[in-house]
Amino acid sequence: MSVSTYTLVADDVLTLDAASTRYSPGAVGFEGARISYVGPPPNVRTGTIVDLEGCVLLPGLVNVHTHTPMWLFRGLTEDVPRGEWLAGRMRPLEERVGPRELRAGALAGCLEMLLGGVTTIADRYSDMGEIAGAVEESGLRAVIAHSLYDAGAERGLRQSQALLERFGADPQRSRVWVGLGPHATDTCGRALLREVAALAERSGARVFIHLAQSQAEVAAVRARGYTGCAAYLDSLGLLGPTVVVAHGTYLTEEEADVVGRRRTAVAHCPSSNAKLEGRVAPVARMRRAGAVIGLGTDAACCNNGMDLFAEMRTAGLLNKVRADDPTAFPAADLLRMVTSDAAAALGVGDLVGSLEIGKRADVIAVDQQAPHVQPWHDPVANLVYAARGSDVRAVFVDGQPLVLDRRPVRLDAERILADGAQASRALAPVAVVR
Ligand SMILES: [Zn+2]
User: Fold this and answer.
1) Distance between CA atoms of 399 and 8, rounded to whole angstroms?
2) From CA 207, how far away is CA 245, in angstroms rounded?
């Protein structure tokens, strides 16, 4: 099979490399799945030339925390009192859908993210064995984890093992790879977490866990005699660079320091935390202490979408408010939290997250001509505070075009949305009355 070669030519290229190199105009070339050229538009152009005049090229965005099947539940859990969302509202909805519906929701969620310029996701849910096929079909790069709970722990571990055998845990070898997904610190006891740590050690898989996401979680862990959820994980050796903790909404400042000192990867989901808990996680403190921060959209029913442009903006605004300081969380840092830093958080910083020769050709083109992003004085500020996911015009993953002219290339959007609508129909009778 011949290797496909592309040269993308655009008005602007933000590489997000260590020196934040920019080319205006610029080009990105790739051979097969890898980037072979980044620089000014070359005189000799090889392969398929894609003219992206009026666009800026960026590395594909990395969403470090999401639950694709929960696309089905968007709009069904609104303005819920603190403490009721998961047990009181989500679980009854989840009981009404089966694997077929979850698959349909996952594919629709993947479609939503692809069209918004997301090329890598960390996805986790129950029944991941059923959902994985949809994520793989979407063309996204993805680390997937099956959610583990004390209830049904053995069966869950067997499912995780089966996923490991199916996809492996090495992102270098497989576009879809497996992480381990203990649900949270209150729903996972020491015995289960010890098994997770041992399996992580044996397989090389990363661990993904929700941390201090609710007051009930903190209370449950304190009732076991720990000072907090972070101390509990730390006592099990489960804070560190190969563990991705999501939210941290109710961590104390002291706990945030411990998370940071261990160089833990943190999935910061500002709009989800704001909407479901009315809180901003102490992420600035974790970052100052050494944590690697990536942004996550969380699920479509949390916030209510999976647009990383919206998430950058929200992260900037909320963290400025929390810090009482408009210089906090500068735009350049926020753009890193969906590209190079997010890739590092998932352990794929050598593969994606910047446009550099030898890295995987995960590239997006964002329209820079719409009225709401003009004038183009400051590309970084425009991307963080003015652009929207719907401004993404083209998406490539592993050198393959997945979105061109804002339309999916491989996925049948009409069919996927019809299947998603059909799958969510069973939920209508329990739609919440206000
Ligand atoms: Zn989550």
Assistant:
1) 11
2) 8
Q: What is the pTM of this model?
A: 0.97
Cβ 182 vs Cβ 148: under 8 Å: yes
Residue 83: CA count within 13 A, CB half-sphere: 5
Between the CA of 198 and the centroid of ligand 1 the distance, in Å, is: 23
Q: What does the alpha-carbon distance between residue 147 and residue 137 come to, in Å, rounded to a whole number? A: 21
d(CA 53, CA 26): 10
Measured in angstroms, how far is the CA atom of residue 169 from the centroid of ligand 1?
Answer: 21
pLDDT, tens digit (0-9, with 9 covering 90-100), for 348-400: 999 999 999 999 999 999 999 999 999 999 999 999 999 999 999 999 999 99
Report how far ligand 1's centroid is from the alpha carbon of 203 (Å): 23
DSSP letter for 211, please: E
Which strands make up the sheet holding 265-268, listed edge to edge?
A: 61-66, 118-125, 141-148, 176-182, 207-211, 243-247, 265-268, 292-295
Cα 209 to ligand 1 centroid, rounded to whole Å? 8
Q: How many Å is the Cα radius of gyration of the chain?
A: 21
Question: How far does residue 172's CA lie from ligand 1's centre (Å)?
Answer: 25
Q: Token pair for residue 218? A: 């903190």
Q: Which tokens hold the place of 222?
A: 């304190």
**Higher confidence at residue 195 or residue 45?**
195
Distance of CA 184 from the midpoint of ligand 1 (Å): 9
pLDDT band at residue 229 under the 50/70/90 scheme: very high
- The CA distances from residue 304 to 88, 134, 275, 423, in Å, are 18, 21, 9, 18
Least confident of 92-101, 256-265, 317-326: 92-101
Is the distance from CB of 420 to CB of 68 less than 8 angstroms?
no
Q: What is the pLDDT of residue 434?
A: 53
- What angle, 0 to 180 degrees and rounded to 10, lies between the N-to-C axes of helices 99-115 and 413-424? 140
**pLDDT 10s digits, 312-347:** 999 999 999 999 999 999 999 999 999 999 999 999
How many angstroms separate the alpha carbon of residue 265 from the centre of ligand 1? 15
| Predicted local confidence at residue 187, as pLDDT | 98
From CA 354, how far away is CA 341, in angstroms rounded?
10
